[in-house]
Amino acid sequence: MHIFASISVLALLIFFHEAGHFLAATIQGIKVSGFSIGFGPAIIEKEFKGVTYSLRALPLGGFVSFPDDEKNSDVSKDDPNLLSNRPISQRLFVISAGVIANLLIAWIVLCGQATFIGLPNQTNPGVLIIDVQQKQAAALSGLTAGDQIISINGINLGTGQEAVESMVKKIQKSPDTTLSIEKSSNGITEIVKLTPTEYLGNGKIGAQLQVNFDGSMVSAKSFSEVFNYTNSKFSNLLIKTIEGYKSLFTNFSSTSKQLSGPVKIVELGAQLSDQGASGLILFAALISINLAVLNSLPLPLLDGGQFTLIIIEALRGRPIPEKIQLWFMQSGFVLLVGLSIVLIIRDTAQLEIFKQFANR
């Protein structure tokens, strides 16, 4: 059930992203020819009011198509309602709308949680580990997802987000230094030795940390508390996500090991679902923000790549040649599918069930 819930959330977020593009186009009177979730051959396809809606075989994203992109379209190339014939500002709005939709959805679900469910009870001591990377310091020390870190070198971490920040600071200040970690797992407490590795002058352990949350909630005392919690949580997730993608470019050889494919994302969603509705909401907000930041990158096939092409067109004063645009997008498709296949194979091989099978 947890796996199904995480897949459903991921599919909904992709839907909202594409719906952002679709609505931005239709409210401006721009003609749309297709709305698809996934890539590849269509499994389900239905035409309604000139738009073909489809669910496709490879659930790795989605797209909104326009008559401009179709060679056999019945729409005249001079039609003022074609996307390519609209002003630069309108086209940029259509391209940006998916990112805007994902950021808005992330903020709304966090606000909805705080308003109708309550605020996470952050009185539990320590920090929760929700994921570890193979062959990194955390994994080598024996730490696993679900472990609760109570203290470092005998000093309690405290509670809430302050505990997470305290642990991060301690790790960053301790490259190649052995730390004594008190962890609790399934009610059993023990001490393990952890030696952060050096990364750009700071220590790192290859683990994803979260406030030690047991699923219980407390009611917000006022709307200002709801508003402050929502903005704080949203900005924290957004900043951490941007920093993560930034490090991917500044130190690819090290950070590339942290890339997650669809299998790893679903596994993470299932783990957070164990914490109840609040964990699933956190997963939705985290993935929605990740989709927004990822699609903002100026890479082929992503919204950021198309946004960049339009900006270049505006600077040149004329469109980029179609052959160059086609090559740019096709190369992006090959890159995206190839990377997704590699990540799916790697992440599937790292699933616990496959590890157990390999060790037989």
Detailed description of the structure:
- Helix content is 51%, strand content 20%.
- It has a domain of 91 residues: Roll (Pdz3 Domain), CATH 2.30.42.
- With 360 residues, it is an alpha+beta fold.
- It has eleven helices and twelve strands.
- 28% of the residues are buried.
- Strands 4, 5, 6, 7, 8 and 11 form a six-stranded antiparallel β-sheet that branches. It has a two-stranded antiparallel ribbon with strand order 1-2.
- Helix 2 packs antiparallel against helix 9, helix 5 packs across helix 8 and helix 7 packs antiparallel against helix 8.
Fraction in beta strands: 15-25%
Label the CATH architecture of one domain: Roll
Helix content: 40-55%
Distance between the termini: 27 Å
Number of helices: 11
Q: Specify the structural class.
A: alpha+beta
Q: In oligomeric terms, what are we looking at?
A: single chain
Q: Quick one: overall form?
A: elongated
Q: What's the rounded overall pLDDT mean?
A: 83
Top CATH class of one domain: Mainly Beta
